Amino acid sequence: MTKPLAKRIYGGQSAAERAAQRRQQLLDAGLQIIGHNGYQSARITDICRAAGVSQRYFYEAFKDSEQLLIDLYQQELEKLAQALTVAFDKPHPDPEDSIRQALVTFLALVHRNRPGARIIFFELHGVSSRTRDVYLAGRRRVREMLVGYLTPLVGNQLSGEEEIEMLAVAL
Question: What is the full DSSP assignment across 78-99?
Answer without folding.
Answer: HHHHHHHHHHHHS--SSHHHHH
